[in-house]
Amino acid sequence: MSVDLEWVAVLRHGQSTGNVAREEAESAGADVIDIAERDADVPLTDLGREQAKAAGEFLARRPPDLVVTSTYRRAWDTARLAAPDGVPIVPDERLRDRELGVLDLLTSHGVRERWPDELRRKRRLGKFYYRPPGGESWADVVLRLRSLLRELSADHPGARVLLSAHEMTVFALRYLLEGLPEPDLLRAAGGTDVPNGSVTAWDRDRDGAFTMVLAQEIGHLHATDTPPTADDDAAEQLS
Hints:
alpha/beta, Rossmann fold, 6-stranded mixed sheet, 10 helices, glycolysis
């Protein structure tokens, strides 16, 4: 697709209490992840806030023109902590995490035990197009991001835009900006960790093509002695 932006980047939110709870539930072999809040309200951990601040030091060296953030609390709080002074922050619900419908709050074990037919349906349809009942497919997330990029291109042509968002956003942008076909995208996603607080970025060349110039960069975490974490979002873990 044609995107009239000079630079597009994704800052994955810092570690959240949901990331920690999911890891604990998966390790324990539980069916359900113990999270009291709705997904939109899951906060950052103390470490997650430190990761966001470290990203802010990195971004201050070459600030974006605009930060657009997921409306989910963990991403919005990350944006507030990381955005350089004077850079506007705009929330947009199209950047929210992938919705899991009936699979929400279930571990991998829980999905196998409670929804075996859904696992069979996912294998048949494929990861990109499978939509859990009441939830979204990868393709659904791509569609809303396509809409957002078109709007940003029209309203802020030639801008440097940072998206404060989720793990899934990185893969959706590889599809949209790099034009990766579905099989290549899924292979890349299967072999890629997107650490909390990492930055992935693309530059546009003179011909309008985008090239990834930062791949899940976490040098800023190491530089500030901030421990990196690579907990999967539930939307990616159960996809």
